[in-house]
Specification:
657 residues; alpha+beta; 3-stranded antiparallel beta sheet; 18 helices; 33% helix; extended
Length: 657
Amino acid sequence: NGLCSLNPQVDRLCMVCEMTISAKGRITGYTFYEAIMHSKARLTYTQVGYILADKAKKGSEIRATFSPVVPHLDELHNLYQALRGERTLRGAIDFETTETRILFNEHRKIERIVPVVRNDAHKLIEECMLAANVCAAKFLEDHNIPALYRVHESPKERKLELLKDFLGELGLGLRSYEDVTPADYQAVMERIVGRPDAHLIQTVLLRSMNQAIYGPDNKGHFGLAYKAYTHFTSPIRRYPDLLTHRAIRSIIRSSLPSKKVRRHPAANMISQELIYPYDMAKILTLGEQCSLTERRADEATRDVVSWLKCEYLQDRVGEIFSGVVSAVVGFGLFVELTDLFVEGLIHISALPQDYYHHQPAQHRLVGERSGKTFRLGDALQVRVVRVSLDERKVDFELESQGASRKAPKGSAGTPARAPEPPKKSAKRQKAGKVKPLAEAGSRHKNAAQQEPPLAKGARQKPRKAKRKDKNLASTVVAQPVSKAPAPQPQPVAVAAPVAKPRKRKINKVEAAPTPAPTAPKAKPAAAKQSAPKPAAPAKGSAPKPAVTSPASAPKPKVGTKAAAAKPSTAVPKPITAAKGALSKPAVSAKGAKPKAATAPKAAPKPAKTTAVKAQKAVKAAKVAKAKPAKPQTPSAPRAKSVKPAKKPSTTPATKKR
């Protein structure tokens, strides 16, 4: 109601486009001039719509209320009918779209959302504005003024191909897809009147066209079937319209001869540098900016409306509504509620169980197994499951979705886009929960390559090492399946201590008749005739090395090539162990028979005696620094005869050779 409002009985400055229109609706002449307008009444579209609807009705109350302006409105309505007839002959496309209006209550909350019905009052003003915009475009073109035109080019070839495929399935089509015209589109619109899928076809036709932009090059307007078109009627709210007013005023306030303007004798002339200082480069930049800001404003409007609609639905989660599919995309369906005009998404994972293929040309999703089809314009019953105000999104699910999920096996397809779980092999089913040999072996093999087990065990407590050995032992037992022949039991090679003992004492150790009374009851780890069976060590004793299977054995870093005919001569790599403890035995490569490797000038010791020494060395390290261990037998050497090196060597015996 301020400076720019058309208040009744108030003068306002304006720019006038005075047109001469024939009875057939053709513009035969026009003139632009500056003027002062005086509004006689302030009417709404609804009021004018009722006035025109009651034109043939006698005793109409609303026509009696606005009797001073009724004759002018009736004459304007006759002009509208003439302009509509010329529009039909021109072949302009006439789309019927639905706009909404949000009504608020006293608490500024949405009370309801209602559609805006277009009546003859809306169409009358629209035709008058179109006529004025066409006259403005012709004026700019005739006076060769660099200005912004509203450009709407013809559809692109790719979109026409998709439209051809869609219309072909419905028995429809355009007259020509090579040189398409607006009349071809309008002919399809006339053929679908009364069809149940008319709204669907109109939506596809509208989406096949390009978006209009602002530019200095006049390429015509395809949708309205105009050779030249610009925006002139809204200089208050659109900047391109204001630029058009400045361009026309630059001619009116100049001395240039023109039959299309009317100048007031008291009006002063204004130089073009002051009133319209724009060249083609500046107009091109302004056209790009105005096109960008127009799209940005439309997006901002949609965001605000979406947020308000989400707030309106926030308290209605779980309710069921009727809706229509408004868009089909690769990840689901967009559905618009019929009564509320709120749009939400049904994700493809919420559709009935199947794998759906998106067909963009036909605007549909087709189930691979069930053949279920969801297409643009389908009526659905949906339930509101989630509303996000921050994201301004609404999520729906089909009302019959729960029944589809509970369908018996075979009645529906696989879940949408969900891969089937891998089937178990026959070996895995026979072995039950036991892991395959290759899998377990590869796991321990990788672990052995990354870090030596004994080097890590030496830093840990003996109890942890014992638990680790138990795990290894259980893994070996759980490997009954193997295609390779079982290797013959061979004596396990034991690496000699770094500190070389005397030959005489080593011989005495080998000749020991009986083990010490405190020795564990477990069988020796390197018996010549017995198979390598893992056994849990006794409490407090040193952890007994476990023998892994050929598949799980790590490859020796130093040794000879493994062959089927010749046994491997690999010598194990001594690894740092606890003070006084011995190293773990090496394990032969897969497919090769292990052979005992001895240190130079030294014979291997029995596993039982070495285990006792390792046990006592660990106990002695906890109590004191260096207490000599008691001999196992009268002929056995004392523990102090085996002197550990300051830093045990990790070089194998083969390298010494």
